[in-house]
Design a protein that fits this description.
alpha/beta; EreA/ChaN-like  fold; 8-stranded mixed β-sheet; 15 strands; globular; disordered N terminus; Hydrolase/PRTase-associated; UCP036794_erythomycin; Erythromycin esterase family protein; Emycin_Estase
Length: 445
């Protein structure tokens, strides 16, 4: 098998490779049994032939929504493998919708480039605010989708959507432009609030209680007024698409405000739960709005996993659980794990500097240890194919796997650097990579 893993500079003191924590004669009593069910992946290079993914194509052929996870938000090999799988879905299975864990309104600039070739994709990536996607690997995916779309009928081109709702600027700006262009008779007494949301955002997380309450109330009054305006607007059909799109911008604004309200009233985890629900809702809107009926979803493992479960902070319902409730077996969640190497994240020990980080050994009961004992990674496995009694018993309990979001805290090894899943309930399949490298940030002046 081939890989393009390269060493990067700036790793933390906890840098680890599989050999650091596995004995030279590394073994696991179940490794051979899992190896018999693991399907090799020849390369992470997204430009290479897709023949080695034929078994995955067969498994995904009946899916309507494919959730492509990642154990970190900054791993080059994950991004490149996901790029290959997106190619598989688009080129072999005729998927024409792609969704990213990124803001709905801002990400439409990427869609403009992917579908029509308009704009600069580097500027569009910078405009969605997420350093996680401001990388060479994601840019390569965008360019690949643009190349695929070039010359095809418009209704057969891949569309690119964000499904997240974390900022008010994008939807508020879109609504201002919409009303300015239409010269519409709308509730203009709320224009100042809309302009503030476009320019400054809500800014309620650290605000005094009375200030936060005032800002949230003003935003909610605005949303109620615009909802009423859209309810009363009629169309002859010529601008139905524009009305539907901008009503979605309004809903995105509302989702962001709802999350902020939940965070102020009930804490950060309530805000996170609201966000996952919003992402699932927006993905469903894309499927309902577009003529195509299958979509590839790119997000973190914690979002795409389909198992609502008890967390240390309460009941968690990830986006994937909402999607599983809605689409049932038509939703396929593919998780990712790795043994060692680097990834990029915001390091809390270095003033939240974005840098290359790495992990120490996984917990003793981690499934990562079993995965690392299976030869010839990368590979993938479908949990429905695991019928061996020993493996079934092994996976029939929560086991840790690598799981890092945007933040790296080396002193929080179990809670924020690993997550525990009953893997066959959380994911339909899993991709394993042995050695990883940092995703490559786009160079900017």
């Amino acid at each position: 098998m081939t890989d393009d893993t390269t060493a990067t500079e700036g790793s933390t003191d906890s840098e680890s490779t599989p050999d650091d924590w596995r004995p030279a004669d590394a073994s696991h009593p179940l490794a051979d049994r899992l190896a018999a069910r693991a399907v090799p992946i020849d390369t992470t290079d997204p430009a290479e032939d897709l023949a080695d993914l034929a078994a995955l194509a067969d498994r995904l052929r009946g899916a309507r929504v494919v959730g492509l996870g990642e154990a970190t938000h900054g791993t080059r090999e994950f991004f490149r493998l996901k790029h290959r799988i997106v190619r598989l879905l688009v080129e072999r299975l005729d998927y024409r919708l792609f969704a990213l864990e990124a803001n709905f309104s801002e990400t439409l600039a990427i869609d403009e480039y992917v579908v029509y070739g308009r704009g600069d994709p580097r500027d569009a990536l910078e405009g969605i605010y997420f350093w996680t996607w401001d990388t060479e690997e994601v840019l390569a995916l965008i360019e690949s989708l643009r190349e695929f779309n070039e010359g095809r009928p418009v209704d057969d081109r891949v569309r690119f959507y964000g499904v997240d709702a974390q900022f008010t600027a994008g939807p508020a700006e879109a609504l201002i432009d919409f009303f300015d262009d239409r010269d519409a008779d709308w509730p203009a007494e709320h224009r100042e609030t809309l302009a503030t949301l476009a320019d400054d955002g809500l800014e309620v997380d650290e605000a005094p209680a009375d200030v936060a309450a005032s800002r949230l109330a003003a935003a909610e009054d605005l949303i109620d007024a615009l909802d009423a305006w859209f309810d009363g607007e009629t169309t002859d059909g010529s601008d139905a698409g524009a009305l539907a799109l901008h009503r979605r911008h309004l809903r995105t604004l509302e989702q962001t405000v709802e999350s902020a309200r939940a965070g102020r009233d009930d804490g950060v985890q309530a805000k996170a739960r609201r966000r996952d629900r919003a992402m699932a809702e927006t993905l469903a809107w894309v499927l309902d709005h577009e003529p195509h009926d299958r979509i590839a979803l790119w997000a973190h493992d914690a979002h795409v996993q389909r198992d609502g479960r008890e967390e240390h902070w309460g009941t968690g319902t990830p986006m994937g659980a909402h999607l599983a409730d809605r689409y049932g077996d038509d939703y396929y969640a593919l998780g990712f794990d790795f043994a060692g190497g680097e990834f990029q994240a915001l390091d809390v020990t270095d003033d939240h500097e974005l840098r290359a980080c790495s992990l120490g050994p996984p917990p003793e009961d981690a499934a990562t240890r079993l995965f690392a004992a299976v030869d010839d990674p990368p590979w993938w496995v479908d949990f429905a194919d695991i019928d061996d009694e020993g493996l079934v018993e092994y996976f029939d309990r929560e086991r840790p796997v690598r799981s890092v979001g945007a933040v790296y805290d080396p002193d929080d090894e179990r809670d924020r650097l690993h997550d525990e899943f009953r893997l066959p309930l959380a994911f339909d399949g899993l991709v394993f990579v042995a050695e990883t490298s940092r995703a490559r940030p786009l160079e900017r002046e």
